[in-house]
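User: I'm new to structure prediction. If I give you an amino acid sequence, what do you actually give back? Let's try with this one:
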Amino acid sequence: MGTIEPATGNVAAPGLDAAVFRRVIGSFMSGVVVITAGQDGQRHGMTVSAVSSLSLDPPMLLICLNSASTTQEVVRRTGFFAVNILAEHQGALAERFARPGPEKFDGVGYRRGHTGVPLLDGTLAAVECQVVEAVTGGTHRVFLARVLHAEAIEGSPLAYFRGRFGKLEIDGDAEAYRRLRRMVLARDLPPGTAVAVSDLADRIGSSPSSVYYALTRLVGDNLVLRDPERGHVIRPVDVAASDDLHDARLAIELGSAELTVGRLSDGQLDEYERLAEATARLVAGDHITDVVAYTDANDAFHTFPIKMCGIASLLDAYQKLSLPDLMTRTLSSESDVSEQLIADHRGLVQAYRSGDLGAAKRIIVEHNERAKATQRSAIERAGGKV
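Assistant: Good question. You get back a string of structure tokens that encode the predicted 3D arrangement of the chain. For your 386 residues, that looks like this:
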């Protein structure tokens, strides 16, 4: 590789405060990866943002690692490493590998790559590399590496900006997602319809890449299917699918009851009761007075004890069921809604107040059957699918 002669001569410049430099660099949004390596049966890894594509022919990457880190030393010794590109939901994993310590892999799923280095489960992409050259720069060592193997799945990346991890979402992408989501919920895109990215882009005046991003998110929302032959298809929901979603919620709610009944503070119980009464105000005479408001209030009530578990993955699993979306698609002011559903909400709060786990579980099971019946009736009224 060619070299660049160092600059000569003195340049008058004010002193640069390290804190100022840190803030300036923090203004640059970057992707987040975990560099993993292995030696003598030991696994090593660290979160970094200093990764860049160096060449396409041959495929090469550049990474920068702190010279004092164990992972850097293992990469230097073995000459192999993997770049694990994190998905938007893997902020906790990024934080775990950003902290020093020998137990980073405890409880973390991984597999061995082609080069023997550990590859983390659930990442957006993984790239296995072999070091070609290493250069020291200040406190870090820069590795230039040849790509040996690469793989990726659909999804959105985790981003790092101003010292925090979060989602990378461009305005056009977010707007395309909002518009397509509204169209699906309003049934402007009928269930079972195969949709083409280019056609949707023309219809909503967006770029094909933003539409593709939106459809990928809608797959995660359970509103769109990815069919191998037809492409993206608006997900039809029938009675069986509705029952399945409700039973999945039942399993999560029963588990959350095990973890929260008898463990909530008086303030938390008061909030739970407030959420129950918010749903009661929106049902009168076996009918919903405001479908959108009721859906939001009902979701807040059901989500509360799951949030109180303090388990992010459990809450994420519940939210991915997208039951509020199903309710929005099926219910109307004409739908029959048993006021017993509201009585269930109040009864569940009382069971929580008395610390009666058995009563809480019984109410959750009975309430699930009533909710399934409500949705079943609405779906059948709509022709069997929505």
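You can read the tokens as a compact description of the fold. Here is one thing that stands out. The CA atoms of residues 44 and 102 lie 8 Å apart.
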